[in-house]
Amino acid sequence: MFDGYDSCSEDTSSSSSSDESEEEVAPLPSSLPIIKNNGQVYTYPDGKSGMATCEMCGMVGVRDAFYSKTKRFCSVSCSRSYSSNSKKASILARLQVGKPPTKKAKVLQKQPLVAKLAAYAQYQATLQNQAKTKAAAVPVEGFSWGNYINSNSFTAAPVTCFKHAPMGTCWGDIAEGVRVEVPNTDCSLPTKVFWIAGIVKLAGYNALLRYEGFENDSSLDFWCNICGSDIHPVGWCATSGKPLVPPRTIQHKYTNWKTFLVKRLTGAKTLPPDFSQKVSESMQYPFKTSMRVEVVDKTHLCRTRVAVVESVIGGRLRLVYEESEDKTDDFWCHMYSPLIHHIGWSRSIGHRFKRSDITKKQDGHFDAPSHLFMKVKEVDAAGEWFKEGMKLEAIDPLNLSAICVATIRKVLADGYLMIGIDGSEAADGSDWFCYHATSPSIFPVGFCEINMIELTPPRGYAKLPFKWFDYLRETDSIAAPVKLFNKEVPNHGFHVGMKLEAVDLMEPRLVCVATVTRIIHRLLRIHFDGWEDEYDQWVDCESPDLYPVGWCQLTGYQLQPPAPQSSRDSQSSSSKQKKKAKSQQYKGHKKMTSLQLKEELLDGEEYSFLQGASDQESNGSASYYIKQEP
C-alpha cells in the first residue's frame, strides 16, 4: 500500500524509539480521531517555501511546515531524538560516513523525486489555460451506483445494518464531513499524488467525495469505495512520504495552502489510523476450498447432501455437490446461511440425508470444523412445544414472495421442524422443508392478517376469502401457540426505500440491485429494481444474503444491474401468459434458476395458487404483533 515508502513516527509528545523499530497499530477507537494542529507534516507545494529534509528521520517536506525556527526537523519528536543522540547517530551522519542507512533513512532516497514533483506542481499552477483532466471515479461502462443514486436521489442502507458484512460491526462514526486523503486526479503530474477530500454523501461503502478547497463547487465530486486501497486517513501522506498536491483547478485560490489546511482540518474527523487493517481483517473468511459440508439438496428440499467448497468470495460459498464429476452441479450460499451444516448434522437431528455414492473422501477434501457454522438459539422443548399437525404461516422457500398456510409435518431434534405448504405437498413428503423453531421465516396463525400481508391459501381451497377460524375447524387442526415463535425484533436500522445489494434466492449465485419496499417488524420485503413485484422476496433483516451498496465492488463479486426496459417489457408480456404456479415460477424465473423440483416429483401437474384476501376477523392468536406500517 505504501508503494515502497516506509512510515515514520509523528508522535509529538515523546521521543522516538530506535530507528529500527516499527510502530504498533493502535486499536480501533470508539469514535473517529480528531485532527489536531500538532505538528503534522504535510508534503505539499506551498507556492513560496522551498523543500526541507529532516536531519533526524530523513522526511522530505515543505520547509515552512517543519518544526522550529531553523526548520531542521519535521516534528518535536525528531528534534528531541536528535538532541539525545550524537550527530553520528543521526541519519544524515550515517549517510555522510558511508554507513548503511536505517529503515527511516530509506526515505532520503526519494528526495530528488519529491523535490522535482513539488517544483513541477508549482509550475503547473501557473498554467491555467490547460485542459482539465480527471480520471473517472466509477467505470465508464456498466452500472454505476453513484450515478444511479445521484440521478434518483436514492438513500442506501448504512453499513451498520449488515453485521455479517465487512466492517459491519466496526464501521464507527464514518459519516458526512469525515476527511480522507485520496489520489488527486485533477493534475497532470507523471506520478500519483494525493489531496484531502471530505465525504459529502454516504451510500453503503460508497462515498461521494469533494476535494478540500472546492467549497460549494461540486464540479469535480466523485464516488469511490471508502474501503478501497486508495483511501487513507489524514496524515497518511506525511507518514508515508507521499506528496499532497492541490487540484490544478483551485491551485490559484490560495497562496499559502498550509494555512488553509490547518484551518480546515483542525477539529475535523478522519478515518481511524488502522482502518485499512480492520477492512483487511473483516474480509478474512474461515471457510476454505476443499472443505466438506452438508447443504440442502436443491432438487429435494426435504434432504441434505454433501458438498465441497469450490470457491469463497466475500463470505459467499460456491458449493459443488460431491457426486458432480464435472463440477457444474453447484449451489451458492453465504457461510452464515441456515442451509449449510457440519458433516453429521443431519444424522444428529434426524433430518433426511442423501448418501453419496462416493465411499471415501477425495484427496485433499476435509470436513469443515463444526465451530465455523452459524449457531442457532437453544430452545427448551421439554414443556409446551410444537407438535405434528399444528398450523402456522410460513414463507414458501419455492416462492419467496408468498407467505402461505403451512403445517408442521415432523418435529426433529434441537428445535428443528419439517414444514409443508398446505395443498401442494407431495405424498411422500419430498417437498417438505426444514426451519428452526426460532426462524424468522415462520409465523403464528393471524400474522398476515394483522400486518396486512396477503396470505396464500392452500391450493384448490374454494372458500374465499380465506379465514383461519373456518379452516382450523374444517381440518380439525390447532394453531401453533404464539409464545413458541421468535418475538425478538432487533433495531435493524432499515427504512422503506433504502437501496442495497441482495441475493436473488431463487437463483442464489446472483446478487442484484434491490430496494426495501416494506418492513414488518424484522421482516423485509425486497424488490429487485427493474423487475415486477411478483419477483419480490420476503427476507429477514439479519439475513446474510443482504449487503450494503458497494459490497460487490469491494469483494469482486459481479453485481446484476436493474433490468433494462426491453427486458421488463418482455417479462411483463411473459408473466401475463403464465399462471402463478409454484413450480412454474421457480423454473421460469427471470434468471432461469437451476433450483428445480424433480419432474417425477411433480408428475407433470401444473400447480396454481389462488390469491386469497386477508381475513377481517382476528382470532387474537397473534396479538403480540403490532402493525408497524400504515
From TrEMBL:
GO cellular component entries: nucleus
Record Pfam families: MBT, zf-FCS_1
Signal sequence annotation: none
PROSITE patterns: MBT, ZF_FCS
Transmembrane segments: none
Start-end of Basic residues biased regions: 576-592
Presence of the UniProt keyword Cell wall biogenesis/degradation in the record: no
Major subcellular site: nucleus
GO biological process, one term: negative regulation of DNA-templated transcription
Residue ranges with Low complexity bias: 1-18, 565-575
SUPFAM superfamilies for the chain: Tudor/PWWP/MBT (SSF63748)
Keyword Zinc-finger among record annotations: yes
Localization: Nucleus
Residues in FCS-type domain copies: 45-80
Biased composition (Polar residues): 611-622
Stretches forming MBT repeats: 143-247, 255-351, 353-458, 466-562
Sorted UniProt keywords: Chromatin regulator, Metal-binding, Nucleus, Repeat, Transcription, Transcription regulation, Zinc, Zinc-finger
Annotated spans, Disordered: 1-31, 560-594, 608-630
Gene Ontology molecular function terms on file: chromatin binding; histone binding; zinc ion binding
Name the UniProt record assigns to this protein: MBT domain-containing protein 1 isoform X3
Species whose genome carries this gene: Pipra filicauda
